[in-house]
Description:
By secondary structure, chain A is an alpha+beta fold.
Amino acid sequence: MTTYTVYKEQLPGLFEKWSRKYALYVPSRLREGFYDLVPWKKDLEIAWDYDVAYNSAKRFVMPPQEALVSFDRRTYEAAAVFEAPKQILFGVHPYDVKALNQLDQLMEGGSPDQNYIRRREATVVMAFEPLTVSASAFWASVGAASVAHGFDLYWTKIGPAAFTVEVGSARGEDLLGMNGPLLASTAGDKEGARRAKARILTKARKNGLRYNWEETPRLLSKCWDSPLWRRYSQMCLACGSCNLVCPTCYCFDIREEADDLLEKGVRFRVWDGCMLESFAKVAGNHNFRPKAQDRYRHRYFRKGKYIYDKIGELGCVGCGRCVRACTAGIANPLKVFNELWEETIHEY
Amino acid sequence: MAKPKIAFFDFAGCEGDQLQIANLEERLLDILGHVEVVSFREVATGHSDDYDVAFVEGSITRPEDEVRLKEIRKNAKVLVALGACAAIGGINCLKNFMAENVYREEVYGAQARWYPTYAARPLKSVVKVDAEVPGCPIDPVEFARLTKELLQGRTPWIPDFPVCVECKQAGNVCRYEMGRMCLGIITRAGCKAACVTQGAHCWGCRGLVPGANLDAARIVMDRAGSDRKATQDLLRFFLGDTGAAL
Lengths: 348, 246
């Protein structure tokens, strides 16, 4: 794969060019200790050392609310609604790229989700090797430290003002070359990138699973009746925060609303979550996961087993967002999986 | 089908919820085109006791309110509680934590004994309420949506999850992560997390979410570190008529 070396002084020019054709999002500090991808504007300070983006990249490809169908109540006509703004996500950490890749697989499988696919195709992903690890993150231990695909460009900071940029797609290479010829990375620059990766991996490995992540589905299949589920779920506020901040949770509800003349209307989807009490409520007011314990366990089975059974990887990329978002302090895949491992270790 | 006749009434409250409906402005004409308004004193003069849907604002704070409300209930096919005061008692319930002679003198001074008044309560403590539009004030956009759903013969939908959901949808930084107090964890959503999005915290004006885990919420609020008195004040502000304020 081609790798170029790019210097910091080239960035404002590139950003300016890109932002003419794309909505450009870059990592920035919201307030002390909080970072997010925000719309780029001139002189915005980029938070290169951000630990985790407060909101996951999911909202760019699957917004919290999205129109699907417009309809006419008088003629019974309906038409699909597609919105896919051209956008560049600059500075996405690899675990979030992995989450996007996972969403791709899930949304494209079965009946492909046309709204998702269109948005994803209009989205350029520029990955960035992290420089800091969030205190609640454990991505290095769930196979989410590196990605081999899913990005258009992969940026690694190799010095105070220099980056190597690995090309992941022709589209990415074209964008990078918009301001003139590019400089191929030297062997030294590539070595710098390799070291940067090694450095962050060392930091990231300080917090992790006590076992190989691939054991998780087998571990869970023994833990359906564990007392852990009840112990933690007693504190559950059923607020769905863990679902909604999760970069791989994609469940949604579908609703519709008519216009004020009751002539036309829109069917739209909104984010939903399996930790919300009414998520599993069906016709006749039956709820097949009525207790907090059922819902709590379901989420961990979903992350650790059901997704694995579908696509062979964990439904958790270890970003640690749910750990931070849970006011009750019970959402913590790392802690839950490690505790279950301790509980069952004698059975191995 | 004849247009449903609707009427607005108010008890102890600021009439701010009716004002929110009037604030729909240009949208109001389209929506009101589907109904016949027989009584809405903030928007039009005239009154009739022949109506199908009664929108009732304000809480019940005097014995004679009960008589009037029961009369409204008798006339109306559908009775809708409009706003926090009507739906959950709202801030009027603050007085329920004071001695009767204290609040009566505070409000009516030397003439206190001329005015009968008792503990403030929501409409549902007196009559059967068919639907509630929560919030202080109500969200005009939600009111419009609920009205349209009723007009289409659908079951009106209001969120049955806490404000946290809408905060996450809005991408707000959680108040608890900022070391602040917030009632979003137990409050019914539907406001688009308006207060948090504007930089404040949730006050609980939309009432408790169904199935709110109050025990856990207490622990979470204690951990957030603000003193118990401040927490109690916050819980009594809107949720005085619920178990949360005890």
